[in-house]
Design goal:
Order of helices and strands: EHEEEHEHEEHEHEH
Strand order of the largest sheet: 3-2-1-4-5-6-9
Shape: globular
Number of strands: 9
Largest sheet: 7 strands, parallel
Radius of gyration: 16 Å
Oligomer: single chain
Structural class: alpha/beta
Helix content: 25-40%
Length: about 220
């Protein structure tokens, strides 16, 4: 893809990851428009921003006309697996993601799909960690659906961007503890993730899985 101003669809704006990526995208000169696909309203106004509130991501037929002509989807929606059984986590993480991905591909076969996964995701789908297996299954399915056009981002600890409001659970403390925790765990900022997504949409990347080191490389150039 030649360098151009991109129109993107973004999910997860009401969560920490999605909000951080959104704020960077709105500030980035390479982005001309962001359409947030949310289950509930996100209170933010910006000239580049449009919002589509859809209660059920498994049924997008009613908003089909609003989802055409976008260059990429930055899929930042997600949920912690803590306290969840595998069937419920699979429905949210795998079924919902693939439903959105398939729908968008029907509208635009050339769309690029960016999926925020996680460090230590299990590509074999056979490991002991339930969340890692499900994330791995999701990554693999996206690769088959979008050959050469799906990229899986595996951040570890993530530094919020200025102005963020959406913090839940332990994420409330990350901004305060990040300087210390970043010395102990693989870390990158949400700004770097967003910039890496933008650059990878335009130029591609050497691998379809971006670990922390790849995110930092793409996000700082």
């Amino acid at each position: 893809m030649d360098e151009q101003k991109l129109k993107i669809i973004l999910t997860g704006a009401t969560g920490m990851v999605g909000e951080g990526v959104l704020l960077e995208c709105l500030d980035n000169p390479l982005i001309s428009e962001v359409l947030t696909l949310n289950r509930r309203h996100f209170d933010l106004s910006h000239p580049k921003l449009k919002e589509l509130v859809v209660p059920d991501f498994l049924d997008l037929n009613g908003v089909k006309s609003h989802l055409c002509d976008y260059d990429a989807c930055f899929y930042c929606a997600g949920i912690s697996s803590v306290g969840m059984d595998e069937a419920t986590y699979t429905k949210i993480t795998y079924n919902t993601t693939l439903s959105v991905a398939r729908f968008l591909k029907q509208l635009n076969p050339e769309i690029v799909f960016m999926f925020v996964s996680g460090s230590h995701t299990d590509s074999t789908e056979q490991g002991r960690l339930m969340w890692a297996r499900v994330k791995g299954r999701t990554e693999n399915a996206l690769q088959k659906l979008f050959p050469g056009r799906a990229y899986n981002f595996r951040p570890g600890l993530m530094k919020p961007v200025a102005g963020q409001r959406n913090f839940k659970g332990y994420n409330r403390y990350i901004k305060i503890l990040y300087p210390v925790l970043s010395l102990l765990f693989p870390s990158c900022s949400l700004r770097e993730i967003a910039r890496a997504m933008i650059k990878t949409t335009i130029y591609g990347y050497k691998t379809n899985i971006l670990e922390v080191k790849d995110i930092m490389l793409q996000g700082n150039l």
